[in-house]
User: Fold this.
Amino acid sequence: MKRYLTVLAAVWFLVGCGGMGVDRSDDLIVIDAGHGGHDGGAVCAGKCEKDAVLQIVKELKDAFEDEGYRVYLTRGSDRFLTLGERTRIADKLNAKVFISIHANAIADKSKFEKIEGIETYFLQKTRDARSQRIAAKENAAVLQGADALSKNVIIDSVLNGPKIIESNKLAIDVQRNIMQNVKKEYPDTRNGGAKPAPFYVLVGASRPSILVETGYITNTKERQRLFDRRYQQSLAQGIVKGVDRYLDNRKKELGF
Ligand SMILES: [Zn+2]
Assistant:
């Protein structure tokens, strides 16, 4: 009987602790599935980036809601949104963070099975050629019609704000927690790190904003994983843990 009561007390304690966790109900997360509609994003072996990321954001929505967050998806179906529409939503709803979900690709077929891994980007100009190439690929659809001058005006206007530093911290926390979580089940996953890149989808959002490249659709192993529910859920849980960590640290900095 005593043992039974001890177990009961332990269960009560654990359940109680879960219930008394940090209240996230004030924290709205805007999640953006890249591409959509006529813009398929990267395509390989008949599989489209736009479809993988839509599945991932749905898992992400569930994972955030399980932790008590409020969530808004920029798209919950296969439709195209302009750059302005994606980030305006985050501003209008006063989101805590903006997370854009993508899948990566490379052009060189001879490297399809060599290049793999997960990367998290925050908005910043960079001289790194690889990051520039990845950004150029993702920017292609959203920048139709904008000339080079206005592109530079847009990006320069946001580079000095405190949100760049915050976005950098968010990217580091999210990338670290994705890797810790995903490697438990997929230990061979390559850590591509948290990096700066000039992604225009992040330009308009006046809040900490990141873009997660969840794997390479051009790599056979990762393409299969990107459409695998277990991998999607593992990624999603890692992203949520990263956002938890980021927000907890900000609250500590502010003395809460
Ligand atoms: Zn993309």
Observations:
- The first strand starts at residue 28 and ends at 33.
